[in-house]
Amino acid sequence: MFIYRRTVRRGKRWPSLITREKWSPNGNSCAFLNILGDYRYLSEGHYSSVEAEISGVRVYPKVKEALDAYVVPLCMQRAEAAGIPVPDYYITNDTFDPPCIVYPINPFMKRHSVVYKAGHVKRISRSMTRNFKYAMCVQRIDEDAAVREYKCVMGSTTCEHLEDMAAKVWDLFHLPLCKLRIIEDGRLMLSAIEPLQLQDLGSRELKLLRKANEWQR
User: Fold this and answer.
1) pLDDT at residue 94 above 90?
2) Average pLDDT estimate for 151-178
3) H or E element: which one contains 8?
């Protein structure tokens, strides 16, 4: 967890990281960059952003931004409004038609399912909805679509073809660390945003984090 000062280099904003002990509610040029990577409700990352907001410090991400990012239908709605491509989706607590990606909307489950065969529908529907009690978000995909995940650090990624979307997701939700689940079928569509903890960064992502600091020294 750090504080950063925003400036612009080569048309892109990057943070200069300094220690949390220098928090200052009166420091207009400073903000708290929460790099715990998991900002889900009741997580340590969630409470760190709460603490910063209560202290009057500008924080990235804000609590509301993180909560919206992790609830798939809210994420889809906000992303689509911001010009980020998303798949067709609907919410149901019944069965669904494959091929699709299914996300639970309940406090007991976090795992998603990519479903291609009709024979799996009833079992997955029952599991995702907790016996048809809770809703789930269903995203339609093509049979030959690929579903991949990419690590993002402050709106940047090591995959050039995803740079534009990563930057837009940063502008919308301000998650310093996150994974983007992407549907690829000749297009790139955002499927979901998932936590990415600092210890799960590879060497290439760590270079992005260090570069964000070095550019401002």
Assistant:
1) yes
2) 94
3) strand 2-9
pLDDT of residue 17 exceeding 70: no
Residue range of the domain that includes 29:
2-84+145-214
What is the 3-state secondary structure of 110-168?
CCCEEECCHHHHHHHHHHHCCCCCCEEEEEECCCCCEEEEEEEECCECCCHHHHHHHHH
Dihedral sign for Cα 59, 64, 65, 69, please.
positive
35: its two tokens: 């790099």
CA 181, CA 106: separation in Å to the nearest integer? 20
Domain co-membership, 75 together with 149: yes
| Calpha distance 88→141 (Å, rounded) | 8
Q: Cα–Cα distance between 177 and 153 in angstroms, integer?
A: 5
Phi–psi pair at 67, nearest 5 degrees: -65, -40
pTM: 0.84
CA 177 to chain centre: 8
Same domain, 128 and 150: no
Residue with tokens 């979307």: 165
**Residue for token pair 């990519």:** 114
